[in-house]
C-alpha cells in the first residue's frame, strides 16, 4: 500500500519534472531551474538531533550548548548551499555510445565539464532504468568522461531515458540532483543465439568444407588489422616489417559468398530467427568470410569486414522496428 | 583529451574509512568526559572500539544481534549500579558513549555510521553540562572541526582524498557557519528554565557558603581560591574595609551550629543611611542558594527578588547558573530601629550550656551603662587579651564550645569570633545575630573588576541597639585589624596562606589577573547570555522583545543574508574563469606574428604554427620555437616559469622582414 503510494508519487514527480523541463538536446547545462534539492534521511536525522540538542540546552540554560547547537544548525544550512553548488554550472555532453547485444550493458559516455575553479566531488550519474551508478570527482577547470551503464533488454533503439546527475557531497545531509531528458539512444543488436544450426554453405557449392582451406590461393592484398579479424588471416611477416598488424585479403568472394536468408529458418519465431542470423553473421565475420543477408524487407549484398558486419547487425536490430522511429534517428 | 576517471571504488575501502573517521570523531568528542565518568565506562568503550577495529582489519565477523542486546542490557545495569540513575550529565554521557560504541559493533553502512556520528555530537554537547570554561570551549573548536571532517568522510569515504582536502572542505563550511551561528546565538529567542526535571543535579559539588555555620566551615572555604563572584562598581569603589558582602543572616544557635531558621516575613523597616550610595553589578557564580550577595547594606535590589527582614536578597529559585545583577548599597547604615520586641526575641535565644560565658556577660551587663558599653567591653577583651586569628584553631567538642574557645583555646577564625561575640551579646540581653558573607575583594587592574574568592568568606555580627537599630560589629577586626584592612593573606601567618605561591611569584599574579579578565568577559557576555541579557540586546538594536513576527522576520533576514553572501561567493567561484595568463601571453605572441604576416590558422596547433614560422623565417626560429616550447610546457604539462614566459613574449618583437 505504502510502496504503491510512493511509486505513484514518484511517477507524478517525474511527469511534473519532465513537462516542466521539456526535452533536452545532446548538451545540458545544469542551471538553477533544473537543479533540485531535498534533505536525505541522514539530513532529517541530523535536523531532529539538532532540535533535541537545542531542547537539552534550553533545559540546562547552557550557553555553550546553544553555541554548539547553532553552529551545527548553521553548518547544516551551509552544507545545503554547498551541495547545491556542487552541481550548479556543470555541463553534461552526450559523447558516444557503442552498440551492444541485447542483454548486455550499454555504456553511454557522458562528458561532465567543470568550468569553475572548485573541484566537484562525488558527482554521481545514472540512467533511470538502471540501478548502477557512476561516481566521479571532477577537478577544477576540467572534464571527465563517465560511462553511464544501462542494461539493454530488447533489440532496436533503446533511449537512455532520464539521465540523473546527483550529489550528496559534502556532508551527505542533502541530496541535490538534476534530470536530463536527452535525445540519445543506443542501437541494440539481437542477442546471438546460443545454439544455432551450422552456417549455410556458399551458393557456389564447391563443397570445400573448411573455410580456412578456401581462397588461400586467391590472396589479393593486405589491409590494416581491425578488431575481430581472425588471427589466422594476419600476415605476420608483413606485419613485422611494417610494424603494424596487417590482415590478408582474399579475392573471389563472389563465388564463395553465402547467403543468410530469413526464409532458411521457416519454422521459428521472428526473434529466434534474428538471433540465429546474428550468430551466423558473427561467426562468418570471425572467419572473415563474405556473406550476404536477406531479410523480408531488406537485402544486403555479400561482402566481408567490419562494415558489412555492422550493416547486417543493424539491419537485424531494426528488423520490423517502427519506421517512424527509424526516421527520427 | 578528456581523461576517463575510474568509478571510485567505494565498496572496498569504505568500511575502513568510515570506521576510522567515526572512531576519531568519538574520541575527540568524548575525551573531556574521561575525567568525569566512571573509569570502567571508558575502559569498556575502548575495548569495544578495539574489538570493532579488529573485526575490520582482521576480517572477523561482527558480533550477533543477541550478543549485542545482552551487552546493552548489561551496560545499562552497570550504569544504574554506578550512578543509581540514568538522569543527569554523567550517567547520560556514559550511556551515550556506551551506546555509540555498541552501535559501532553492528555498523556496516552509511546509516549506521551516521548514527554514531550524531551520537558523537551529543556526547560533545554533554561536555558543556559539567564545564563551560574557556579552555573547554577552546578545545571544542578543533574537536568540532575534526568531527565535521569525519562526517564528510563518513558520507563520502574516499581513501584517496588527502587529509588536507577534507580539512579545507569542512573549513569552507564552518567558516560561513560561524557568523550565522553568532547571529542565531544573539537573536534566537531563549526560553528560560528547565523543560524537564533534572537540571539542578550538576551543582552538587558547588563550594561556597551554606545556610548554616559550624566552626570549621569557613576556614575550610578559606583554602579555596575559586571565584565566588565578581563586582564592577560604577564610580569610585568604597575602601577595602567597607567591602562587606552580605549573604545570609544566622539567627538560631543549637550549641554547635548557627543556622538561619525560617525567615520572618518582611516588614517595613526603618533604614537610616549616611554617605554616598554605591551602584555596582555583580556576576555571581552558581551557589545553589536562593540568596543573592550584595554589598552591606542593599537599598535597591534587582527586580523579581525579595528582601527578608534581615536584609537578605532572596530569589524564587536557587542560583544554579551564573547570574548577573545590579544593586545599590550604603556602606554606612543602621536599620530596624522600629523592630518590635517579639521579632527581637528571636535574636536573644540561647542554649544554657556555657556557664563561664554567661557569667562574663552578666558581669558586663551589671557594670555597663548602656548596650554600647557592653559591645565595647567585648571588643576590648578580644583586642587586649591573647586571642589569635588562625586557620588552625584546634578542635572544639562537647556542649560548651563557646566557653572552651573564650577561655581555653583562644585560637579561632572569624566564625569563632562572630559566634562567640553574638553568644556573649545575647547572654547580656542585647539582640544579636551572625551575618555570613565575604569581606574584601581583589581589584583586577586588567578589566577593573573586583574578584571575590571563596577564601574571602567571612562572618561578622550585628547587634540591635535601642534607638539606632541593627549595627554591624566585626569582632575579627578587634582581634586582627589587618584582616579587614588588607585582606586575609596579610592577616594569616605565612604558612597558612592558601595562595602563598602568588605572593612569592608576583608575575604569576599578573597572569592570573589577565586570565581572570578573560573569564570575566566570557562569563558576562557568553555564558550569562540568557533571556534577560537578550532582552537588553534586543532593546539596544531596536527590536521589540515580545514581537514574535518582527523577530521571525529579522532572524529570517539575517539567515538569508548570511547564506546569500555565501551563495554569491559560491557562484563567483563557479563562474568561468577568464583566460589564464599563459593563454593571454601566447595570444599576444600570435598577434605579433600576425602583424608580420603569419596569422595562425584555426586548425593549426602551436607546434605546427611555430614550425611554419621557423621554416619561412630562420632568423626567428630560435625565439619562436623557444616560446612555443615553453608555452606547451606551461599549458599542457603545467611545468615551467610563467613569469619568465611572459617576459619572453613581451621581449619578442619580430621585424617585418629578415635581415
Q: Unreliable stretches of chain A, pLDDT < 50, 5 or more residues? A: 205-217
State the distance separating the first and last CA atoms of chain B. 41 Å
> What percent of the residues of chain B sit in helical stretches (DSSP H or I)?
40-55%
What is the topology, as strand order, of the major beta sheet of chain A?
Answer: 2-11-10-6-7
* Rg from alpha-carbon coordinates of chain B: 38 Å
Please give the structural blueprint.
The complex is a heterodimer of chains A (329) and B (659).
Chain A: H1 2-21, E1 27-29, E2 35-39, H2 41-59, H3 63-87, E3 91-97, E4 100-101, E5 105-114, E6 120-127, E7 134-138, E8 142-151, E9 156-159, E10 162-167, E11 174-181, E12 185-189, E13 219-224, H4 236-242, E14 246-250, H5 253-256, E15 258-261, H6 270-286, E16 291-295, E17 298-303, H7 306-317, H8 323-328
Parallel strand pairs in A: 4-12, 15-16
Antiparallel strand pairs in A: 1-3, 2-11, 3-5, 5-8, 6-7, 6-10, 9-12, 10-11, 13-14, 16-17
Chain B: H1 10-30, H2 39-58, H3 65-83, H4 89-105, H5 110-130, H6 134-155, H7 163-187, E1 212-213, H8 217-221, E2 227-234, E3 244-250, E4 252-253, E5 258-259, E6 271-274, E7 278-284, E8 291-292, E9 294-295, E10 298-300, E11 306-307, E12 313-314, E13 323-329, E14 332-335, H9 341-344, H10 355-367, H11 371-384, E15 388-389, H12 401-409, E16 411-412, H13 414-427, E17 432-439, E18 442-444, E19 449-453, E20 457-465, E21 469-473, H14 475-479, H15 481-486, H16 488-491, H17 500-504, H18 506-527, H19 531-540, H20 548-574, H21 581-595, H22 606-616, H23 621-637, H24 642-650
Parallel strand pairs in B: 15-16
Antiparallel strand pairs in B: 1-5, 2-7, 2-19, 3-9, 3-17, 4-5, 6-14, 7-13, 8-12, 10-13, 11-12, 17-20, 18-19, 20-21
Helix pairs in contact in B: 1-2, 1-5, 1-6, 2-4, 3-4, 4-5, 5-6, 6-7, 7-20, 10-13, 11-13, 21-24, 22-23, 23-24
Overview of this protein structure:
The complex is a heterodimer of chains A (329) and B (659). Chain A is of the alpha+beta class and 329 residues long. Chain A contains eight helices and 17 strands. In chain A, 33% of the residues lie in helices and 30% in strands. In chain B, helix 2 packs parallel to helix 4 (89-105), helix 3 runs antiparallel to helix 4 (89-105) and helix 4 runs antiparallel to helix 5. Chain B is of the alpha+beta class. Chain B has a six-stranded antiparallel β-sheet, with helices on one face. A five-stranded antiparallel β-sheet of chain B has the order 9-3-17-20-21. Mean pLDDT of chain B is 83; it is low at 1-9 and 197-204. At the A-B interface, helix 2, helix 3, strand 7 and strand 8 of A face helix 5, helix 6, helix 7 and helix 20 of B.
